[in-house]
Amino acid sequence: MRILIAESDLFVASPLIKMLRNVSYTVDHAASGGDAINMLKYYDYDLLIAELTLEDMDGHDVIQRIRKAQSTTPIMVISHLTQPQFKVTAFAAGADDYVVKPYDNDEVLARVRALMRRAHGVSASRLHVGPIELDLNNRMVSINGEFLHLTSKEYAILELLIIRKGAVLTKDTFLNHLYGGIDEPEMKIIDVFICKLRRKLQRFGADHMITTVWGRGYILHDDQKLHVQNDDTSPFSNDLQEAV
Predict the structure, then answer these.
(1) Which residues are registered as beta bridge partners of 97?
(2) What is the pLDDT of residues 71-82, one digit of tens each?
(3) CA torsion 27→32→37→41, rounded to 10°?
(4) Domain 2-120, what fold?
(5) Which of 99, 106, 141, 220 could form a disulfide bond with 148, CB atoms 3.0-4.6 angstroms apart?
(6) Is the pTM above the cut of 0.70?
(7) Looking at domain 126-225, does it have CATH number 1.50.10.20?
């Protein structure tokens, strides 16, 4: 998942960038409102996190311009402005969430994950497709209750396939999801990632779930409907979580 942070002061933005990268999000920084608007035009982001006091324009104006451009990218405001009128104006402009500085890291991560789930039409933190369970919060995968170790790129590919189950995803879609149009490798790298992912799924007899659509891309499917669960039970033990 790719996140754009709009904050004029890189020193101020650095702790947030580091925190998000530590949990395997790809994070880009925009030093101005204009940069943020332009980057959203050319790259697909799963979330924009914006400060309201940007050096070139008011953050509310940035949000309004993004929404007028028909962008549906979720927008979270993180600002030192605590007065209710700033929050009301931000929501009216098109923001989806508002967090006041100083913030708690765990709370921000929880809000980030919730916004991304809703943006992809998913309301719960764990998804099931056939025997595969995807834990969005912990970025972990199990098959029939057994932990499946994946690299960050393999997880990102499987996550996208599951969230968009039943849709044919092109290699361009995967490249943009993994690299966001920045320093992208050759397109054939997607075939390599898919091949490695299939080999790992093969151990559980689930490699057939990823199908190649020749000339178009890849699709994830099975005979069961995608379903979600909100309960606190999970097949992942503490030992497995520490191993990731």
Answers:
(1) 76
(2) 999 999 999 999
(3) -50
(4) Rossmann fold (3.40.50)
(5) 141
(6) no
(7) no
